[in-house]
Specification:
alpha+beta, 4-stranded mixed β-sheet, 4-stranded antiparallel β-sheet, 8 strands, elongated
């Protein structure tokens, strides 16, 4: 049976009530604190403090803090004025107290649901923003490549025109030389030079004007091949092939609806399947989403979690590594995501027997959240395994 706390203290002003309740050596994690418009409670098993208040308070402007072995309520009065006592005169009515207690619990649940919904909405907005940023980066990259292609095309056209002009000048020069030689022969005949000299001159081969055929190596790009641009061209061609392949897989035979080609919808679907235990279905949903939007880190991270539970350790490591590549630069906004990915990859490495490499991932996660007790505990266990392996090796 709970023991009622009697050694509390309280004081009030015209607008505020301050209640101080001592704790009985319990851990903070086990303490349940609740307040509503006319009720406060501190549950510190086996001790409990609850109070039906003398007047009403504004729960939205009130607060409760736990420090130095004390729970301190700072309650904002709805109606200014001095209270003669802390407890309501109706506190002895058990049925009324029960009703007020149930109402307080109900309000607390409603408040928690609202906070959870707001948190989910904010998370969805952040992920949507990341998708938009990835799409914007892709668009800018396409525009850069198109501009570069246009510049190279213009440069190639200038080179071609320059080459044609040079060829025309060479042809004119050859024609001029031929005419001069023919004129010399005619002058020699008119002057009555010796037949031997005339025959020798006539026997000299005369250069003829001809056409030179030029064939170019087949290319996707309309510009001349340049060794300095080869890596960029290969990268662009690979991206185009990946996009065509992703689009082909995504569209298929027309069996997918519009929302089934939405990466965000597919991610939510994968999350739902993961929570229900359908891991293979979740992997398929994340894979389809990755084909549509390959630069969204949360898709690779979530699929890594599925592979880890399925025992596909190498695939888990691959997805986790790709997610870390996309989660750059390392900023506070993606700190929570990077922590999860490091832990998942570290777990997969340890299950493969690569404890030293796995410990490095856990160390990276601890640097993100130095106060995470679970990570500290897991690292201690990994070190014990490593030390034991070293002893056996000796």
């Amino acid at each position: 049976m709970p023991l009622s706390v009697e050694d509390y203290s309280w004081e009030d002003s015209d607008t505020t009530v301050v209640i101080t309740v001592p704790l009985k050596g319990a851990k903070t994690a086990k303490i349940d604190v609740m307040s509503s418009v006319n009720y406060v409670k501190v549950n510190n098993p086996p001790y409990i403090f609850e109070c039906m208040l003398f007047g009403s308070i504004d729960d939205n402007q009130s607060s409760a803090t736990i420090e130095n072995g004390l729970v301190t309520f700072r309650l904002k009065k709805c109606v200014p004025g001095h209270w003669d006592q802390l407890h309501s005169p109706k506190s002895a009515d058990k049925e009324l107290m029960k009703t007020i207690r149930e109402e307080a619990v109900r309000r607390a649940h409603e408040r928690a649901e609202i906070q959870e919904k707001e948190k989910s909405e904010k998370k969805r907005e952040r992920e949507k923003l990341l998708v938009q940023q990835a799409m914007r980066i892709d668009q800018e990259e396409r525009e850069r490549i198109e501009k570069q292609k246009e510049n190279e095309k213009a440069e190639a056209m200038r080179d071609l025109e320059k080459w044609k002009q040079e060829r025309r000048l060479q042809a004119l020069e050859a024609k001029k030389i031929l005419l001069q030689e023919n004129q010399k022969i005619d002058d020699t005949r008119v002057a009555g030079k010796k037949r031997k000299t005339v025959e020798a001159v006539n026997q000299e081969p005369v250069r003829e004007i001809g056409k030179i055929g030029v064939a170019f190596t087949p290319r996707v790009f309309p510009t001349a091949a340049r060794e300095s641009q080869k890596d960029q061209e290969d990268e662009w061609l690979k991206k185009q092939a990946d996009r065509r392949q992703a689009a082909s897989k995504a569209i298929g035979d027309g069996d997918f609806t519009e929302e089934e080609n939405d990466p965000i919808w597919l991610q939510d679907k994968g999350n739902s399947l993961f929570k229900s235990g359908n891991l293979l279905g979740a992997v398929n949903a994340y894979t389809h989403a990755i084909q549509l939007s390959p630069n969204l880190p949360s898709l690779h991270s979530n699929r890594a979690a599925c592979h880890l539970k399925l025992g596909n350790l190498m695939k888990c490591i691959e997805d986790a590594s790709r997610a870390l590549e996309l989660l750059t630069p390392a900023v506070q906004l993606n700190a929570a995501s990077r922590l999860k990915v490091h832990v998942r990859r570290g777990t997969a490495l340890c299950q493969l027997g690569l404890y030293v490499e796995g410990l490095m991932d856990y160390d990276a996660a601890l640097k993100i959240d130095p106060n995470n007790q679970q990570i500290i505990k897991d690292m201690d266990n990994i070190r014990v395994v490593i030390q034991g392996s070293n002893i056996e090796a000796q």
